[in-house]
Design goal:
It is a single chain. By secondary structure, the protein is mainly β. It is built from two helices and 19 strands. The strands form five sheets. A four-stranded antiparallel sheet has the order 1-2-3-4, with no helix packed on it. A four-stranded antiparallel sheet has the order 5-6-7-8, with no helix packed on it. A hairpin with a 7-residue loop joins strand 18 and strand 19. The two termini are 29 Å apart.
């Protein structure tokens, strides 16, 4: 978060959390939302009728998610927090918050709905009551040296932000790129360990969305069963989880059942093609 942040952390989080191009298809299969030059655009499924929905903001970044009724999009915008100590030195880290774009707007209307400075990679719950996101709870601290990534929840009716706290062990545990099951009872996310110097991705884990009862050792052991996985995304019926394999020797888009059986390759990248580390939608 400051200029002392290790390069490996920056590179890893840049790959995992921020995709250069984000796409999200509406529930009626009629429109696709995407980011172009930091603005929110729409197009038809065949690529025609490309036009800006929210233009002029220039700092939208990462994952886009449609509300279940198809009337709103949630997305993240990025900024920066800079610090200069009175006796010299300091640093800077990126900050993020979540915003709505309204589909029935005639004037590119948008509004922010979080003020955490650490909210990104949103995903709407199936019933529209919550938005799950990657939450850096340290982002609001000016002199924070390192992030602390958790699964964040935004309750749409009450506008309350909460988080799923992970147990602390010998090393810190990070939770990133969360995806909520359709019934809201489970959450899948990318688990990583942080030893104070570098981040080590561990794998995808599926756990209770209200409270984590496992020990750090148990969580790490379970995540290692899907160690090549990143960017999980639940199917609408809750029977499958799609994810991007980070195994460079066998990359691809896979689906697997929540009990980690039935693994299937859905798409293998062509030569020269790269799969982004952002959850499929």
């Amino acid at each position: 978060m400051s200029i002392s942040r290790a390069k490996i952390l920056i590179l890893f989080l840049s790959f995992l959390l921020i995709a250069s191009l984000s796409l999200a298809q509406s529930t009626d299969n009629g429109r696709i939302a995407f980011i172009r030059n930091g603005d929110i655009w729409l197009m038809n499924t065949d690529g025609s009728n490309q036009h800006p929905l929210v233009g002029g903001i220039q700092n939208a970044k990462g994952k886009i998610t449609w509300s279940p009724d198809g009337k709103r999009l949630a997305f993240a915008r990025t900024g920066a927090l800079s610090l200069k100590y009175p006796d010299g030195g300091g640093g800077q880290h990126n900050v993020y918050d979540l915003f709505y774009a309204f589909l029935d707007s005639t004037n590119n209307f948008w509004e922010g709905f979080t003020e955490t400075l650490g909210a990104q990679s949103p995903e709407w719950s199936a019933d529209g009551s919550k938005i799950v996101f990657t939450y850096d709870v340290n982002a609001v601290t000016a002199n924070a040296t390192w992030p602390e990534y958790r699964v964040g929840f935004y309750d749409v009716p009450t506008r309350v932000v909460s988080s799923l706290k992970l147990p602390r062990g010998e090393n810190s545990l990070f939770a990133m790129s969360p995806s909520l099951s359709p019934d809201g009872k489970r959450v899948a996310f990318m688990l990583a360990t942080f030893d104070g110097k570098s981040v080590s991705p561990t794998g995808i884990i599926i756990t209770n969305s209200s409270k984590v009862t496992e020990s750090p050792e148990q969580l790490i052991a379970r995540a290692k069963k899907l160690s090549d996985g990143s960017a999980p995304s639940w199917s609408p019926d809750g029977n499958w989880i799609a994810y991007v394999s980070s195994d460079l020797s066998n990359p691809g888009l896979y689906v697997i059942k929540p009990d980690l059986t039935g693994k299937r390759l859905i798409h293998k990248p062509n030569p020269g093609e790269t799969l982004a580390g952002s959850a499929p939608a």
